[in-house]
Amino acid sequence: MTSISSRRPAERLFVTGLGLCGAAASLTIVAVIGVTTVEATPALSVAGPQAFLTDDGWFPLSGRFGLMPMILGTVLVSLGGLALAGPMGIVSAVFCNHYAPAAVATAYRLLLKALAGIPSVVYGLWGLVTLVPLIAAWAPPGASLLAGILVLALMILPTVAVVADSAIQQLPPALHRGGAALGMRRHTIAFRVVVPAARSGLATALVLALGRALGETMALLMVTGNLVQYPSSLFDPVRTLAANIALEMAYAQDIHRSALFVSGLVLALLVAAALVVAEVLAPDGTRHVD
């Protein structure tokens, strides 16, 4: 049997390795934000930060840098996708843990993990050849805010479902036994006891999904139409910040290129704002019942 003293050097090495990995990850994030800020500085110096919020259009070669239509498009498509995928993902997790037979739950979890690993361009291709024509038959042109919401919801649904399922699985069995002892029905235990108890993990699932939604590029580039405008309905084309960078970075130069880095900086701020809001609104954590 290994003694405590012989384990200590290995444990110290392991802890040191974890610390180095954490430090490397933190430095990488700082470096990315730092480079983005430095590259965005020329455009911010020439136009001023207010120009990116108040200019009446996105024409960087003409000195007009309005990002608000793209910021709105990014927020609308992300929140719309989350509004669809969030409840479905949580219900999927409840189904796996409380209603599905063991074999069905195992197969369903494998399916969700497989869907989570599919590249976004595949979802975009499906949306382009299947979903967009269906919407176009109803309300042209088809490539629209609605198409982006539906494709994005399908993309982030596995993320919500898998993380929510893990959060529910980690709850103590005493919660289920206590509810059953009180004579609660299965659906009452699931939605009145289990879901509130797992709220911290469910909030994490939603935040992770929202982060992926805000940064999604290829799929939305293929199905949203990419017009820089304020949408007046779900059927209007929009352009997101990430799609804007992907479309124009290949040929952008000088101030135009710097303005695209401002788009990236705004996108990073949106993700950070989502994390801060989630941290403020989320509960302190799950209280376990012994």
Structure description:
InterPro entries: MetI-like, MetI-like_sf, Phosphate_PstC, Phosphate_Transport_Permease. Part of the binding-protein-dependent transport system for phosphate; probably responsible for the translocation of the substrate across the membrane. The protein is mostly helical and 290 residues long. It has a single domain, classed as MetI-like fold (Orthogonal Bundle). The protein has 12 helices and 2 strands. The protein has helices at 4-47, 51-54, 68-98, 102-116, 120-138, 145-169, 173-181, 186-197, 199-215, 218-223, 241-248, 254-281, and strands at residues 58-59, 64-65. A two-stranded antiparallel sheet has the order 1-2. A hairpin with a 4-residue loop joins strand 1 and strand 2 (64-65). Helix 3 (68-98) packs antiparallel against helix 9 (199-215), helix 4 packs across helix 6 and helix 9 (199-215) runs antiparallel to helix 12 (254-281). It is globular, with a radius of gyration of 23 Å. The two termini are 32 Å apart.
